[in-house]
Design brief:
The protein is of the alpha/beta class. The protein has helices spanning 2-10, 17-30, 41-51, 69-75, 97-100, 120-129, 182-192, 213-223, 226-243, 272-281, 311-317, 331-349; strands at 34-38, 59-62, 80-83, 105-109, 135-137, 145-146, 149-150, 157-161, 175-179, 258-259, 265-268, 320-323.
Length: 351
């Protein structure tokens, strides 16, 4: 790619104009004052919580059906993840939040799963009532909107991943955080770069969480195409919505006050594993996001949360299946996949 060649010729591998350009572009996209380029979405979550002084003995409320990074970021700060169950659309249930708040609650971390934003008005009302900051885990929701407000612009801090599988993707690990706080953005940049105030003066003990310049080059290129990527994924999702038989298949319906970007297209079905095997036999790859809830993972055993504690999450984990929805698929391919799903269930009913 010519843009990569240019970066090589400049010898621009850490920092530089491409990083600044990316931060400016992404802050405009997310309609916030500041963005900080980082090396992963996980580091964005960890730094965000650290910047809110989350530490030993503190609690952070989040959902148990996310990718493990959501909870890991909390645990790595010696804090405790406190889970609450989710709604039918897999996003955190705001009605469960107040019952989980204690004197130790330091932050609330809703996860915008599948590119669908949580019910942020309800979440923010509760957070403001209790003076608790909100960190949006927006790893899967770049470009999504809730009541005309972009993902990453509603909470105190938004945390994004630009992993190769995301709608906005780098050629390796990358991430960033968004905020309207100048203080948070400056501290994030400091922590991400060894705590260096200047080349020779270390203001605080920091980390190496910088985004590689090469990834910024690629992301700046992909940002120009993001709208088309989201548009194509929305079209593919709409085809599924029209064809999949609601007698056998359920999925989250569009809301007139929100824009979903379909990082994944997740259905909920009976006989999930059998359907997955059938589709594989037809040459159609699927996935499960995620088959084991975080609270039931071996890594979470010290939390001592028993099976049955979060019934909606646990039921969904046995029924969810992610169908292909990426922008490279044709309408004909999406149509075929949907019809194969319908055929599986119709054939099982008809014997």
């Amino acid at each position: 790619m010519p843009i990569i060649d240019q970066s090589f010729r400049r010898g621009d591998f850490v920092g530089g104009e491409e990083i600044l350009a990316f931060e400016k572009k992404v802050s405009q996209l997310c309609e916030v004052k500041y963005a900080v380029a980082l090396n992963s979405g996980t580091d964005a979550l960890t730094l965000a919580l650290r910047l809110l002084d989350v530490g030993s003995g503190d609690e952070v409320i989040t959902a148990p059906n996310s990718f493990i990074a959501s909870a890991a970021a909390i645990v790595h700060l010696d804090a405790k993840p406190v889970f609450v169950d989710v709604l039918d659309d897999q996003n955190i249930d705001p009605s469960k939040l107040e019952g989980a708040i204690t004197k130790n609650t330091k932050a609330i971390m809703p996860v915008h799963l599948t590119g669908r934003m949580c019910e942020m008005d309800e979440i923010m009302d509760i957070a403001e009532k209790h003076s608790i900051p909100v960190v949006e885990d927006a790893a899967q929701s770049i470009g999504s909107k809730y009541k005309n407000r972009p993902s990453g612009s509603i909470g105190k801090i938004g945390c994004f991943s630009a992993h190769p599988l995301k709608n906005l993707n780098a050629f390796g690990d990358a991430g960033f955080l968004t905020t309207n706080s100048k203080e948070i953005s400056e501290k994030a940049k400091l922590l991400a770069n060894h705590g260096l105030k200047t080349r020779d003066v270390v203001e605080t003990f920091g980390f190496v969480s910088r985004m590689d310049t090469l990834q910024a080059v690629i992301l700046n290129f992909h940002l120009d195409n993001l709208e088309a990527v989201i548009s194509r994924r929305k079209m593919n999702a709409s085809i599924y919505s029209e064809i999949l038989n609601p007698k056998f298949v359920t999925f989250s319906k569009a809301r007139d006050y929100a824009l979903d970007t379909f990082h994944t297209f997740v259905i909920q079905v009976d006989k999930r594993d059998a359907l997955k095997d059938f589709l594989a036999s037809e040459g159609i790859g699927t996935s499960i996001h995620y088959p084991i809830p975080i609270h039931l993972q071996p890594a979470a055993s010290e939390l001592k949360i028993s099976e049955g504690t979060f019934p909606v999450t646990e039921k969904q984990s046995k029924r969810i299946l992610t169908l292909p929805v990426n922008q490279y698929l044709s309408e004909e391919e999406i149509d075929l996949i949907a019809k194969k799903v319908n055929y599986f269930f119709e054939a099982s009913v008809n014997g």
